[in-house]
Specification:
By secondary structure, the chain is of the alpha/beta class. The chain is 34% helix and 21% strand.
């Protein structure tokens, strides 16, 4: 019986993951799905499927084609919103399914056809680690799995008929003992850093920052699947740039002008002091509405070409649409570096539905 139940549960989880994979484009665009992560989990709401059906109303309750009506009169049964006692009709439920970040990264790779990243430096050094992910019949008493031992003893007594339902007592014997066991896993000592840069001048609103937050989450999810450990650094700027923590990066509200070159200089200094390019895989992701001080564009392009591109695996620029920003900086990058540069990837993120295509552009190079 237990084997049948476990099989059904696994089948159910496969169906749910298939539904998530089929609708991944939609989930990528929904910031609210990034809710409860816990240590390693994310909760994705999956709408319950329902077959369409007719629902009969009550006679004399009004509705379409039943006598004269007044402008603004609702077509449903009468009564003000919120009135009446508790209803008896079933509602539409939402099922929450827990999916690990590793599974999400695998789905992301399959859907977007993302290549594996070839690390460098110390990433080529293998390090053995032990993970307790299996059960064995032998082992030290300190690793005895009490629940598995009890279940095995109960199963044995029930199948042999020695279990007394009137006086339940489960006594494990030697063959019932179960112990936690480990497997040796070789993992690379990867050294990778992701540096996020964001314009927080007055033209960047909370809506644009939400686009950045959602895009960054999926970038992190993919890169973590390629590296055992990954560092994230954050830079914000208006006319002046500074290195901040993650919370400040997403919650800061600034005003004033924009000098993108200040972010490039801060990024270059961060790389020089903390992340030697010979040992670190460096990924830079910049987000802005493209509104930059015109005289600063030349400094930006020179700094990007001379300081950042030689040391980065990849430099991605995502331009979020803003009613206040001019968007000129994206065109300046296209004119200087073209659309098929070896290390630069450019994307426009006008709204949430564009996140899917932007991530595919950013991570599809496999660098």
């Amino acid at each position: 019986m237990s084997t049948k139940i476990e099989s059904d549960v696994q089948r159910f989880r496969q169906i749910v993951r298939g539904s998530i994979r089929d609708n991944l484009r939609k989930y990528l665009s929904q910031g609210e799905m990034i809710g409860r992560q816990g240590k390693d989990l994310i909760s994705i709401p999956v709408p319950q499927l329902d077959l369409p059906h007719f629902r009969f109303g009550e006679n004399g309750s009004g509705g379409v084609a039943r006598g004269d009506g007044e402008p603004g009169q609702p077509l449903t049964a009468g009564g003000e919103e919120g009135e009446g006692s508790a209803g008896s009709e079933p509602g539409r439920h939402v099922l929450e399914v827990e999916v690990t970040l590793e599974e999400l990264a695998a789905m992301l790779a399959d859907e977007l056809q993302l290549p594996r990243i070839e690390p460098k430096g110390q990433a080529n050094i293998q390090q053995d680690s032990h993970r307790y992910n299996s059960i064995r019949r032998t082992g030290p008493e300190s690793l005895r799995h009490l629940r598995r031992t009890f279940v095995q003893a109960l199963r044995r007594q029930v199948t042999t008929g020695s279990y007394d339902f009137q006086r339940p007592c489960v006594i494990p014997v030697r063959d019932d003992q179960r112990y936690r066991a480990w497997n040796t896993i070789s993992q690379p000592q990867a050294c990778a850093v992701v540096i996020y840069m964001m314009d927080v001048s007055g033209s960047m609103t909370d809506a644009q920052k939400e686009l950045v937050r959602t895009t960054s989450f999926w970038i992190d999810t993919w890169l973590k699947s390629n590296y055992k450990g990954i560092e994230r650094r954050y830079i914000i700027h208006d006319a002046v740039a500074k290195v901040v923590d993650e919370e400040t990066f997403y919650r800061t509200r600034e005003s004033g002008g924009t000098r993108i070159s200040s972010a490039y200089h801060a990024c270059h200094q961060l790389v020089q002091t903390s992340y030697p390019p010979s040992d670190w895989n460096i990924y830079c992701f910049q987000f802005s509405d493209g509104d930059n001080w015109n005289e600063d564009n030349k400094h930006c392009l020179n700094s990007l070409n001379d300081d950042l591109l030689p040391v980065c695996n990849l430099f991605c620029y995502g331009q979020v649409e803003s009613s206040y920003g001019s968007g000129d900086y994206l065109r300046a990058l296209e004119q200087r570096f073209g659309e098929k540069h070896e290390k630069i990837v450019l994307a426009e993120i006008g709204e949430k539905k564009d996140i899917y295509d932007a991530i595919k552009l950013f991570l599809g190079t496999g660098r």
